[in-house]
């Protein structure tokens, strides 16, 4: 999908020490960029899941491991 947008989501608070000013409500045009930022992000608590979702389909294209 050429006009797809991607959002980084988590049920826990997100932070990124690499990208300190990141806005996790931002919609990304590029799936690779969204996945790279999500992969470098951590959650608080640390073992929560981070995922990248394609908008508007809701398809999860990337997911980190969760505590479960």
Write structural notes for this entry.
The protein is α+β, with helices and mostly antiparallel strands and 68 residues long. It has one domain. Helix content is 13%, strand content 32%. The chain contains 1 helix and 6 strands; from the N terminus they run βββαβββ. The strands form 2 sheets. The chain has a 4-stranded antiparallel beta sheet, covered by helices on one side. A two-stranded antiparallel ribbon has the order 2-4. A hairpin with a 4-residue loop joins strand 5 and strand 6. The protein is globular and about 35 Å long. The mean pLDDT is 81.
Our count of helices gives 1
The number of distinct β-strands equals: 6
Decide which structural class fits the backbone.
Answer: alpha+beta
Number of domains: 1
Distance between the termini: 32 Å
Please state the overall shape, judged from the principal axes of the Cα atoms: globular
Characterize the biggest β-sheet.
Answer: 4 strands, antiparallel
Low-confidence runs = none
- Average pLDDT score: 81
Encode the helix/strand succession as letters: EEEHEEE
Strand-residue proportion: 25-35%
Q: How helical, in percent, are the residues?
A: 10-25%
In short:
The chain is α+β, with helices and mostly antiparallel strands. The protein contains 1 helix and 6 strands.
List the helices and strands and how they pair.
Layout: E1 5-9, E2 13-15, E3 27-28, H1 31-39, E4 42-44, E5 51-55, E6 60-63
Antiparallel strand pairs: 1-3, 1-5, 2-4, 5-6
